[in-house]
Amino acid sequence: MQKVIDAHIHLSERRDDSLVRYAKLNGLSYTLEELLGLMRAHQVERGLLLSPPMRDGKPLSNEEIIALCRRSNGILSPVVTVEPVKEVVAAAIKLTEQNRKDVKAFKIRLGYVKVPADSPMFSSLYDYAVAEHLPVLFHTGDTASSTGDLTLSHPLNLDRLANERDELTIVLCHFGNPWFEDVAELIYKHPNVYTDTSGLTAGGGAYGGRFSEWLARKMSEAIYYAGGAEKVIFGTDYPVTRYSDALALVNIMDVGTADKERILWRNAEKLFGL
Question: Computed from CA positions of residues 56, 57, 58, 64, in that sequence, does the dihedral angle turn out positive or negative?
Fold first, then answer.
């Protein structure tokens, strides 16, 4: 089986986690033990753990994410989620500095937080991320909540930031779904912009099979436009998407074996230093 790195995982083991409903839909117990077991079963050697949203709308604390990663015996590495509050930004930088060997990236929840990616609120975070060579992941595309702001989560909103911060490594989560062509342009235009495949197969309904085919075609076309898959990273968004579905999606993409290998692990290993 193919080696895999999952660059987009959620977990809390708390009942007030808003992703519990996705876990139930996917028949998952949503525990660290289950997650590590699934990773072993699917040859997933490493993973990045991100804060899930809680029912109060806030993300799980970064301290709890770091604690979960430590329980994984080095399988999971933390991504620090940053909200647009001056004190929170400062605390996130301090926590990262204290855990510098473990933290692999930052995450900003565009569309859920009501500020744009180039808000001055994040300036000190971006300065630190550049200095420490830490990528910043951004939620892009559809939001899980109907109250999410699509004008802020649209991937083209990252174009200005990528122009202004050409040394900042930017990762567009969820391939900007449904704006795949816009993401194709961004990863083609900007050397510092990447994207991931997380959380895509959560929809589809009665047309689940056709939906997966559509997703695979859109991502394949984006790779054709970009001239290769060097900027595409595998992610599940566990528990939003099952490992079997996320891996099957990559398998049916109309790209070469070498590009599938880049997507599944090579790109993430290089980008996050795993």
Answer: positive
How much is the pTM? 0.96
First-to-last C-alpha distance (Å) of the chain: 20
- pLDDT of 79-111, one tens digit each? 999 999 999 999 999 999 999 999 999 999 999
Tell me how far apart the alpha carbons of residues 80 and 213 are, in angstroms, rounded to a whole number.
33
Kindly give the pairing relationship between strand 170-173 and strand 193-196.
parallel
- Sort strands 232-233 and 105-108 into parallel, antiparallel or unpaired: unpaired
Q: Yes or no: say if 241 and 198 are a contact pair by the CB < 8 Å rule.
A: yes
Residues 6+ apart with CB under 8 A from 104: 48, 77, 78, 79, 134, 135, 272, 273, 274
Structural domain boundaries enclosing 96: 4-272
pLDDT tens readout for residues 189-202: 999 999 999 999 88
d(CA 73, CA 59): 23
pLDDT of residue 192: 97
pLDDT, position 54 = 95
- Beta strand 76-81 pairing with 232-233: unpaired
Of 48, 68, 162, 54, the C-alpha closest to 116 is: 162
Residues 260 and 115: their CA atoms lie apart, in Å, by: 35
Q: What pLDDT score was predicted for residue 90?
A: 97
How many structural domains is the chain composed of? 1
Please report, for the domain that includes residue 205, its CATH number: 3.20.20.140
